[in-house]
Design brief:
The protein is built from one helix and eight strands, in the order αββββββββ. It has 152 residues and is mainly beta. It has one domain: Beta Barrel (Porin). It has an eight-stranded antiparallel β-barrel. It starts with a helix and ends with a strand.
Length: 152
């Protein structure tokens, strides 16, 4: 009996796997950061994994590295996540938060909060737009970025 149950359960699990939308992703992004009337360009990369929370919701984790494109700045590494709603087969609307390392020598570490929209461009590509506010003990920063990524 067991020799029929195990192969049957394995076949059922494998046939259900394509229906799962859990996905890994990598992206490149660029945009603008601003604070106190000054603005600079920014560029970065991120990698993450989104988990299905049913047919209409998801949650994900993300690591990132972003750099303000001016002198005396460094790569700020981020560790965080996002949660949101699936909009049809192509869209994801989400809120996000992360811990960010300091982007310059005299800056402080920060926490970011924000929101974004990700739209599928076929089976494995996506585009996104996102706003984040970085909250630190010193000057708070705002960032708006667009990104292009691949999902697996």
């Amino acid at each position: 009996m067991l020799k029929y149950i195990v192969p049957g359960a394995l076949a059922l699990a494998l046939s259900a796997a394509p229906a799962m939308a859990n996905e890994a992703r990598v992206e490149a992004r660029g945009g603008i950061v601003w604070a106190s009337g000054d603005s600079e360009a920014t560029a970065g990369v991120a990698a993450g994994y989104d988990f299905d929370l049913g047919d209409t919701a998801f949650a994900g984790v993300e690591v990132s590295g972003d750099k303000i494109l001016t002198d005396d700045t460094r790569v700020s590494f981020g560790f965080g996540g996002r949660v949101g709603a699936k909009l049809g087969d192509s869209g994801k609307l989400y809120v996000a938060s992360s811990y960010q390392t300091k982007p310059c020598r005299f800056c402080e570490d920060s926490v970011s909060v924000g929101a974004g929209y990700q739209h599928a461009l076929g089976e494995s590509l996506y585009a996104k737009i996102e706003y984040r506010r970085f909250i630190a003990d010193g000057t708070d920063l705002n960032a708006a970025v667009i990104g292009l990524g691949a999902k697996f």
